[in-house]
Each structure stands twice: as structure tokens, then as C-alpha cells.
Amino acid sequence: MRTPDEFEQNPDWGYTLSNVRPAIYSDLEGFRVDTFAAAEDLDVLTLDKDLQEERITSREISYFGQFPMDSALFSLEVRGFKDELRDMISGVIQLKEWTIDNNVAADQKGFEVEASLDFPGTTLRASYGYLDQDTWYSGAPIIGADGNFDTDTQDKAVALLTRMSVRHSGSLAAIQDLPLGFRSPLRFTGQTSSIPSLNA
Q1: In terms of pTM, does the model score above 0.90?
Q2: Which H, E and C letters describe 2-22, residue by residue?
Q3: Which of 77, 104, 115, 183 has the fewest CB neighbours in a 10 Å radius?
């Protein structure tokens, strides 16, 4: 479980205006702009809503082996996982837009492989990860100002949570020992674009 932090749960922030120019706006001097004052759409604000704990159930199985060779040590680790994420907190945290809520769920499964070859003074490493993810909006329906379901805002909440998830990722690295105890690494990483969300 992850409990919402204090800022997510009970934010109290804003900006107090000073040195307001031009003079026609001088009556705003000292005015404190908070989220309710700056919000562009009051209908989607969730500032006064209590957040619940996120629930994450994770299952994992892994194998690690080391295999001595004539002049090196080969290490291999393989990990498979399956995660269920429920009541995930997603949304926007900005002064003019505050929409976070326990409104997204996701099922993840995949595997990771990491291998290394350790020579005297030199280490070579390679890794690969695969992630399959289904994500959907699970919160209360969002009703727009026109009285219809605001599916765009619901889709945005899902996209915000999944924007950092990629299907394929990997890396190659070489680490070389240097004199005086220094080490020099060279690393290349790559990944595909983010996984599209599924709104159910």
C-alpha cells in the first residue's frame, strides 16, 4: 500500500500578489491566489476530496546463477513478475488545475533479464525488460459542465499514470578499472515509446 502524502491529501498553497502593475489592477495588491481562485474549471476540482490508500499486489519469481569460466565469471538473473495496481492516484497537481483522485487501475506483467561478464579489470553487462500493461479508469464518472460524461478528463488521468511505462527497454554497459582506484563506465540505454492505455 501507498498512503497519500500530506501535500496530496491536504494542500495549502498559493501566491500572494505584490507590486501589481498596471495601476488599474492595484486592488489585487496583497490578494492570495489559491487553487480555487486560479482554477480554469471548478467542475473537475478534487481539492476537497479525501484520498484513499493505493493498493498494490505484486508476485515475482526469479533465478540467479553464476558460472565460472576460464578467464571470467558469467552471471545471469531472470525475473518474472505480475502486479495488480488498484486505486492508483492520478491527475494533475497545478495551481490552476487540481484533479488527483483514486481513479486508475492497472494490471502489469513482464520479465527482466540481466547478464554480466566479469573479467579481471573489466565488466560487461546487458539487460532487457518487457512489460505488458492494461490500464483503465476506475473512478467515479466525471461529469462535465454540459452534464455529459467527461471522457477526455478520464482518459487524461489514465495517460498520466501510464506515460512512464514502456514495453521494451534495455541497456549495454562496459566498466573498466583504472589506476588509483578509479573506474570508467560506458553505458547505452534504449526503450520503445510508452504503452497505450486501455480504458474499460
Answers
A1: no
A2: ECCCHHHHCCCCCEECCCCCC
A3: 183
